[in-house]
Amino acid sequence: MRVCAHRRLVFAVLTRDEHCPPHVHVGTDKWEARFEFSFWDNSVRLWDVVPAQRSPSVSLLEELRRVLKKPENLKKARQLWWRSRQTVCLENQHWDASVQAVVSPITRRSGAVAILSAHFDTSRYRTTLILVSGDQVEIQL
Fold first, then answer.
1. CA within 13 Å, CB half, 26
2. Going edge to edge, which strands form the sheet with 32-37?
3. Which of 34-48, 99-113, 121-135 shows the lowest per-residue confidence on average (mean pLDDT)?
4. CA distance 23 to 30
5. Taking the CB of residue 84, how many other CB atoms lie within 10 A of it?
6. 20, 23, 70, 73 from 6: Cα distances, Å
7. For a disulfide at 139, which of 4, 52, 62, 127, Cβ 3.0-4.6 Å?
């Protein structure tokens, strides 16, 4: 599903055999890059480029990352991912209220609470985390 285009390169959320973390694909017939995004903050990062030996320039990859990071593109990517996958890929991660961040169980600090489930509300553009403690955390994106 098409998110946006830049320099005739199409950003897309694929719908078959996709997996966490949330990401989009963009590329040519010579290379493909995947950019990871989240449902709890507005970060976008390059995940990988395949094949690595045909990777485009670092400046083009950064340009593509910034294009996806634009609010309207990130919003559409999230909506398409949620519609197709029905997950925000945060289960079994932890919420650290002291820094208002999702953290890995490996790097979590004392006081971080496991995320039991998470839901994305496309109309309110909000992610709700259900913690094992029974608490809920609403994140307005």
1. 26
2. 2-6, 9-12, 23-27, 32-37, 44-50
3. 99-113
4. 20
5. 14
6. 24, 17, 12, 11
7. 127
